[in-house]
Specification:
The complex is a heterodimer of chains A (122) and B (108). Chain A is mainly β and 122 residues long. Helix content of chain A is 0%, strand content 50%. The chains are: A mainly beta (122), B mainly beta (108).
Amino acid sequence: QVQLVESGGGVVQPGRSLRLSCAASGFTFSSYGMHWVRQAPGKGLEWVAVISYDGSNKYYADSVKGRFTISRDNSKNTLYLQMNSLRAEDTAVYYCAKTKRENGVGDAFDIWGQGTMVTVSS
Amino acid sequence: DIQMTQSPSSLSASVGDRVTITCQASQDISNYLNWYQQKPGKAPKLLIYDASNLETGVPSRFSGSGSGTDFTFTISSLQPEDIATYYCQQYDNLLPGTFGQGTKLEIK
């Protein structure tokens, strides 16, 4: 079935780096834009970044611009989020999500992963 | 940036009640508005896309309406399993988008 599985979360010190992965299955990964969305403990949803189906277009929330990099490997059906210069305020559950329509960037998110927790703390 | 104002922030209702949540955009977003349900400890689930389209498999008691800046999400007859937090989300073709602050729905 259509599935997204995140991995790579954990506890990291401020200023350090972490890379998240999102493994996709059950759909043609290379046809869909993919997003990262995060949720701080007890807070609402915050969109983080998006990458187009072919990796040619990437957009970021202002809160992570210059520190986070989204990428994808369509041969491995995997989405990534490289997070550098991490701050305490980056502590959150990070979800990957699929756009509903092919070739879309702005769109509804119809499939979500289960999330992976990132804790930034000394 | 487009801001989304969702209200109320919390809501208590009885089983069988009609429940309405609103979302207002700071500028015209046409029908580029989605609604999600999130249960505790779970990932969000898409319920309504493009303001009024019901996602496949979602019960018909859920509905959405609106365009431009003002949008409404309705549960026609509240069920116990509908207890969750609901979020609106705007998007456009270039920049996917901001979520509303969320509405926590509880059973009275």
